[in-house]
Amino acid sequence: MKLSIAIMSVPQRAEHVRTMVGRLGQQISAARATGLDVVGTHVFVDSDRRGPWYSWQGAWETHRPIGSTHHVVLQDDVLFCADLPATLWRMAEARPGDVVSGFLPRKSVDTAVAKARRWVRTRRFLWAQCVMMPTQLGDEALRWIDAREETDAAREWREHDDVRLAAFLTARRMHVFVPVPHPVEHIGDELGSVMGHNFTPAKRRARAWLGEEARGAHLEWTDLRHVRE
Fold this sequence. Notes:
two-stranded antiparallel sheet
C-alpha cells in the first residue's frame, strides 16, 4: 500500500495551509520512519476561484505521478490529529476498498460513541473535509462525473465537490464510512466560509474528534462494527 495526501486550497487560506503543510511534513516523516509508505503534501490552489469541484479534482489528480494505492484530499479549513498520516494508513488497512470521510457532525456520531463503535456508515456522501479512497475508485469517479457534466441530471451539481461525489457513490450503491473519533476538525467558521455558509458553528463542528495533540493510529480501526445512518 502507498498513501498520498493533498490539500485543496484557495488563496485566502494561504496562512493556514502553510501551517497545515508544516505539521503534515513532520508527521509524514515520522510515519515513514516507522516503515509506512506515505507521500505528501501536495497543495492545489484554486487561484482563479473556479470552485470546490475544480479544486478537489486538482488535488485528487496529484496522486497520479506518485503511483499511490490510496489518496487523501484535505480541505484547507481543518485541524488534524498528531499522527494523521499513520492514522489514515491504519484506516486504509482496515477498509482497503471503502471510501472514508474523516468528519461528520451528525447525531449518528453520538450514537457510535455511546455504543463504542469505531465507524459510522452513512446513507450518502455528506462531508468532504477529509476524503480518502482507493485511487482506482477515485479515478473512476472523475471519469463518471466528467461524462455527465453536460446532462440535465448535473444541473444541480453547480460547482460542488461533495454533491458530485455523492452522485457517483449513489450510482455505485456504495456507502461512506466515517471513523469515530474523527481525525480532523472543521474550522471553516473561524477562517471565514468561502462558500458563504452562515450556519450555527456548532452544526459544522465534530461531535467527536481526536484533538490536535492526540494520536489515532493505535485505535482498533479493524473493528468494523458500525452505526448506520
